[in-house]
Description:
3 domains, 11 strands, hpI Integrase, Chain A, elongated, single chain, 4-stranded antiparallel beta sheet, alpha+beta, 14 helices, 50% helix
Amino acid sequence: MGVKKKKTQTRTKPGGTSVRAMLNVRKDTTSDRYTLVIQILRARRRGVVFTPFRLRSEEFDPVKGRAVHNLNIREHRRFVDNVNRYLSHQLHEIDRIVSELERVGEPFDGRDVAGTFRRRYDNRYVHTVFRRQIEELLRQGRHGTAGTYRSTLVAFDRFAGKRHYQLCELDEPTVMEFRNFLVREGLSVNTVTFYLSKLRAVYNRAVREGFAPKGLDPFGGVPFRVEKTRKLAVDDTVLRRVAGAELPRGPLAVARDLFLFSFYCRGMSFVDMAYLRQGDIEGDVIRYRRRKTGQLFTVRIIPPLRAILDRYREICSPLALPILMVKDGRGGFCPFELSGTDPARKRLSEQEQYKRYLQNRSEFLHHLRRLSRLLGLERSLTFNMARHTWASRARRQGIPMAIISEGLGHTSEKTTRIYLDELEARRIDEANDVVTAFWDDPDRKLSAGGQE
């Protein structure tokens, strides 16, 4: 491989394994920058782990095996610190692999160590970094976010084909190629932006963790466009018909209760409703954390909200609502409770619970569609409609945008405005009807706060 031999400080573990960082200086290299690698020697065989960094000779101390500052520039110091943090992490992981292989008791060499590392910890590649972050999200119980990352990875793998992209290869032209590939697949503008934003999130975290070089922004010139979609808010007439419908006990009534519960709770998301526990209810207040952001919410319990909670208190304890329910074998239903004491079994149980959540969400959406047909509604209800409806009604009541945004849990008012653009457009359309209807009623006046 042509690795230049220099005096370097080696880390020798018991058993004769030597691990050291060095520059891969090749005779045919025309650049003055060399790839930083980690060399592993054991049983007279060498394995090499490549890093995403390329350094000049003067930027690396071969004795200490560390990158060094040679410019008194803040960005360069940050880059060097980034390299050394990355090295420290990778060396620690290699040491751990060596210890694991030694405990197995089977003979192994430097190539075996490097191969194991690449399969498990090689964070140079987009695919590997995605998989690692997905696994971490699953360990944290953030199954929804893990699912969005997984779908983005599937899309990127379609784009990459047999090529394994490294993080350092994610430059602006490559990201633009990915974007154009998604457009050619016929995906909507918002779906393309969704995938690009997830790829950017994964990349930015890799930069923060030292797995990708800082100072580059492969997404800087890539358009992240969002098209306006049909808004989901329903008007007061629909709300009254839904709330006042006489329904027999059964899945339609439960679906209606869940829709109204979300509305009464300032648009609580369906996933937060599913995992809401009776322990989150203290007197006249519900306190819970959003699973998406971790934000702590406090919602005062109004009378219709209390009625829904009381209706399901006995049948779904310790949960607050009958969403995460399974058949109990006696013809009834019981809450899906986690099982297992060790981390692996508990994580598997959490995954099964989330699968149950997805299945039951699909069932309740089906029942909402049935309810919509029964009531003769123009559009089928969804649980997101409850959230949008709360925001739109709050706006119509003159509640400030900042309060609406906080009530919804948005981190910026920009997101809230996406919910409310349709409301403002409708007011303008109503005003236009009045202004242009000169042939209909010459004495008609503006009803939107205007003048004659």
